[in-house]
Amino acid sequence: MTVVELLERLQGVRKTDHGWTAKCPSHNDNSPSLSVTEKDGKILLHCFAGCGAHEIVTAVGLELSDLFPEKLEFSKGRTPRFPAHEVLMGLSDEIDIASLLITRWFDPSKIWDLDHYDRLLLSNARIQSGVVMIGGHRHE
């Protein structure tokens, strides 16, 4: 898949200095919060509202592997390894989100609801998955 083919599936696409912005298809986006960049033949996605790449590509009928020039193949039973710096950049966002949610939890003036709790659990799962991607072990 080319970046142009992906952009054709998105709404509100605008060219920027470093790629494109668009409305994120995985949440009700009123203003463009999705950044799309092409680097070394890979299509990189970042939703500033916190949606993950998997949710974004699923919303437009694609798979994560469609963002890469060749499908990634791994030995059976082996965890795929990704460049640590790429995983850490993604984890940084999740750590920020988790930190904000935990801060909110301990602030008696803030309301804590089930959506906040669910998002904290999602951040935890993404952080653990990222650790596994760079060769670490999942903690149960």
Structural account:
- It is a single chain.
- The protein is built from 4 helices and 4 strands, in the order αββββααα.
- Strand 1 (about 10-15) and strand 2 form a beta hairpin.
- A 4-stranded antiparallel sheet has the order 1-2-3-4, with no helix packed on it.
- The mean pLDDT is about 80.
- The chain has about 140 residues and is an alpha+beta fold.
Contiguous runs where pLDDT drops below 50 for at least 5 residues: none
What is the element string, with H for helices and E for strands? HEEEEHHH
Rg on CA atoms, Å: 16 Å
Q: Outline the biggest β-sheet.
A: 4 strands, antiparallel
Spatial order of the strands forming the largest sheet: 1-2-3-4
Helix and strand content put the structural class at alpha+beta
Residues in helix, %: 25-40%
The CA-CA distance between the termini, in Å, is 36 Å
Counting H and I runs of at least 4 residues, what is the number of helices? 4
How much of the residues is beta strand, in percent?
Answer: 15-25%
Total strands:
4
Q: What is the global morphology?
A: globular
Overall average pLDDT:
81
